Structures are given as C-alpha cells and as structure tokens.
Amino acid sequence: MRASQGTQTAAISAPSDEGAPGGAGWGRETGRESFRLSLPQSAARSRTRYARSLLARLSARTLPTNSSAVCFTATSRQRGLSYKELFMTETQDNLYDVVVIGGGPAGLTAGLYLARARYRVLILEKDDFGGQITITNEVVNYPGVGRTTGRALTQTMRQQAQDFGAEFLSAEATGLDVDGDIKTVHTSRGDLKTFGILIATGASPRKLGFEGEAEYAGRGVAYCATCDGEFFTGKEVLVVGGGFAAAEESVFLTKYASKVTVLVREPDFTCDAAVAAEAKNNPKIDVRYNVELKGVTAGQGGLREATILDRATGETETWKPADGGTFGVFVFAGYVPATQLVRGVVELDDHGYVVTHDYLETSVPGVYAAGDLRVKNLRQVVTATADGAIAAVELERYAKSMSEKTGLVPPRPTASAYEQAEASAAASGAAAAPGTSP
C-alpha cells in the first residue's frame, strides 16, 4: 500500500487493529511530513471491474475526517464509514433501476411505464430506435391508431417515454454481469450499473439473399402475412418457403390475394402433412417444388417481375402475374432471435429464443425478456408492447426490493414533462397540458 501528501509518498503497512492516532499500522509522521492513507489493501483486492475502478478513483482522495487532522487520527470504524459513504454516493449517482436493451416497441413501452412510475430507466439501442417495424410503410392494425407508418408509431412511443423521464443511449451491449444485487451491462460506450435488466432485442425474419430482397423490403417484399396481407388485395403473391409458416400463411393470404404461388425449395413441404394438405388442396394456391427465387425487379407501382430457378434443370424463368400488374413476395424462412448477448446467461429453447416464466422473468432473477426474442405464439407490435408493460410492472417491484435491500436509491425522475407543463400552466393560470393523465 502507498500513502501520499503532495508529492511525498511512503509505504504503509496494512492495519492489524484500530490503533491509536499515529500508530504504525495506519500512518506515520516523520519530522514535519504527514502521510495520508490510501485505500485499505483488503478492499483493493475486489475482483469486479467496476469495484476496481471505483476504488482506484477513491484512492486519490483524503478521507473526509476532521479538517484539522490527517487520516491517521481516525479509527478503523471511522475510516470504514467514510469510505462506505463515498462508495454509496458514487454508486447511487451511476445506478439505474432498470436498463432496457433494445429500443423497439417492447423496450419503449417498458421505458414509458418505468419512467412514469418514477424509476430511473435507460433504453439502450445499437441501431435505430423503433426496431424492425420502422421499415413498414403502413401499420393499420394497432388498436386505437389510424393508418400510420411504423416509424411514426415508434417515434410517438419514444417521445412518450422521454416525456416521462426515460433516458436513451445509442450503443451496443457487449456483455452482462448478472450475479449479485447490482448488475452490469457492458456497452461499446462504457459500463452501466443497474438493479434489473430487460432484454428486448427482438427477432428478425431470416433473409434469403435474393436480388432485390433488401431493396424492396417493406415495398413489395414482406415477412408477415397478418401485417401486410391486406395490402395485396386482388393481386397475385409469391410465397417463399416450405415449412409450417409457409403452408399456413399461404392459406391465410388467399383471403386477400387473387392467386398464391408457393415456391418450395425441396421436393415437398417439410411441415406436418395435414398442414401441407390445406395449402395443396386450396384452389387459389399453386405449389411449385424444387424451385428457388433468385430475384425480383420493380417498375411503376411495385414489383413487376421475378426470376425463378428450377433446381432440377438449372434453368431460370421470368415470372409475371397473369394480369401483368404488380405482385407481392412473402418470405417465410423462419426468424432469427437476437439472443447472442444472453446465450449462456439465461435459458434458451432449442431455436435460440429466451424462455420466460409467467411474468416474463428469465431463469436469472432480475433479468426479464419482452417482445419477439422470447418463446411465444404471435409476434406483432401489439404483443410486443403488451410484453413491455408486463415486464415493466414486474421490474418496478424488483427494483424496489433491491433498493430496500441495498440501501441504494438511483437518482430517479421527479417530474415528467407533462407535470412540468401542468405546473407551469397552473402557475400562469393557463389550461393544463393536453394529454395529461392521472
């Protein structure tokens, strides 16, 4: 151990007892030189990265004892209490009740609920806030909201969360430390300390890589029949895939499309025969086997042509709708859950989705999951926001219990933007802020 004053330094041994002022264990005075104690050696042996950095910062400080005396006049108990106070203050100032990883509908809803309940919450997103719904040009099935775009809908969600005091950070989560009462989220912009964590990183449709797929995603190429089927009413559509989803969704699409052509890469469907039979026997569905979609091209109004490879002969053909109009492509090749961050941390199913309990807690206490990355039957914006609300309420309880247990209270929001506007209006005699809710 070392102690210092000004530019003077000297070695000081670890204490064996509380010792009297000036005792050899905690400080020494040589002539007129007084040496101040740094951190206790035992505390400096902490193995956690955050503790090491915090203790290193504190080590440069003088203990907050009487200003007329140097450190060695304090007892061990006084020294311990002083360091505890410093540690608690630094920890609280940098502590969150909940860190939400993922800024899609589930994460934004959770942020709104937590901030409105006066908990300190930060929403972390490595890409665009809003999630994959932002590429959808039209959303018409979100209850209570008229026809809108995915980006407009999620921008409103973000603004609501921000108005209530939620914090936002554009960064990538790179790792988690979930042991103990205070958890750590490692990010590309530093570490975050938190009581609870919500994983809301979503799942994305598996892309096939055919020409035009990325360019026309959301503009003719779709991945959700429930979301986008209506937009192709009276038009022909291609369905790409040979599994359960392709068979089932091709039948669903016959409610809107004039004709559905299913492109199956294998010699037959790979799903249950009964499900496949529904598609095969539907008069509005044409199934083609051993074929592969190689690309699509667009013209005025939408997609106009598709290039299809016959895997048996190696020949390609240019496909067009019978009426010469535009058409849609629906890809059902499965989803890829964005769960790399939690692999080996929480329980996943065989397909990589997060397994949650009834109230969305994972196999690790204090770590919850919401949205498309968890095991569920339906993946829609409305189910994601429902997940976010449920998880937020549970995380409120968890953060409260951890705060009571540790004695740490993060710097929480005191007044939302709504309340600030209302207070300002009341002070000036104006009407209350519109949209203010109790």
From TrEMBL:
List, as start-end ranges, the regions of compositional bias called Polar residues. Answer: 1-11
Q: Name one Pfam family in it.
A: Pyr_redox_2
Residue segments, region Disordered = 1-27, 402-422
Example GO molecular function: thioredoxin-disulfide reductase (NADPH) activity
Which reaction is catalysed here? [thioredoxin]-dithiol + NADP(+) = [thioredoxin]-disulfide + NADPH + H(+)
Has UniProt tagged this entry with the keyword Transcription? Answer: no
Q: Which top-level group of life is the source organism from? A: Bacteria
Q: Do the record's keywords include Lyase?
A: no
InterPro entries recorded: FAD/NAD-bd_sf (IPR036188), FAD/NAD-binding_dom (IPR023753), Ferredoxin-NADP_redctase_2 (IPR050097)
Keywords (alphabetical) are: Flavoprotein, Oxidoreductase
UniProt EC number: 1.8.1.9
Looking at the record, the residues that make up the FAD/NAD(P)-binding domain are 96-388
Q: Check the record and name the PANTHER family matching this protein.
A: THIOREDOXIN REDUCTASE 1-RELATED-RELATED
Its protein name is FAD-dependent pyridine nucleotide-disulfide oxidoreductase
Organism of origin = Bifidobacterium reuteri DSM 23975
